[in-house]
């Protein structure tokens, strides 16, 4: 069971379901659906792949205020309708409130996307003024 402390309003059908969570690490699963396809051949829009990786990074940090500051993300293979994506994210380096992350997305053990993320934990929620 994942004890999730952040991004509690996320739609898990669009961003992934936590299957493993420990300090500095998260593993999520996302089954692709018709709502995610970009064309008549069943290609999945990259935004859903990125969203899975982003959410995995948020959970690996698992702080209520964590936000994404920047990223570098590569799409390596196409993802299609009914594929099941597995994403693993972990902290590679931490400097105060800055967390440097790595996320790898796989389908059937084949890496389809990967990226580096910089996540920040502000002192209060970003919408609090």
Brief characterization of the structure:
The chain is built from 2 helices and 6 strands; from the N terminus they run αββαββββ.
Walkthrough of the structure:
The protein is of the alpha+beta class and 129 residues long. The chain has a single domain (12-120), classed as Roll (Thiol Ester Dehydrase, Chain A). 16% of the residues lie in helices and 43% in strands. The protein has two helices and six strands. A six-stranded antiparallel sheet has the order 1-2-4-5-6-3. The protein is globular, with a radius of gyration of 14 Å. The termini are far apart. The model has no long low-confidence stretch (mean pLDDT 97).
Largest sheet: 6 strands, antiparallel
Strand adjacency order, main sheet? 1-2-4-5-6-3
Global morphology: globular
Q: Summarize the helix and strand pattern as letters.
A: HEEHEEEE
CATH superfamily: Hotdog Thioesterase
Structural class: alpha+beta
Might you state the CATH topology name?
Thiol Ester Dehydrase, Chain A
Q: CATH first level: which class?
A: Alpha Beta
Roughly how much helix do the residues carry, as a percent range? 10-25%
CATH architecture: Roll
Average pLDDT score: 97
Could you list the spans in which at least 5 consecutive residues all have pLDDT below 50? none
Number of strands: 6
How many domains comprise the coordinates?
A: 1
Rg, Cα atoms, Å: 14 Å
In angstroms, what separates the terminal alpha carbons?
34 Å
Work out the helix count.
2
Beta fraction: 35-45%
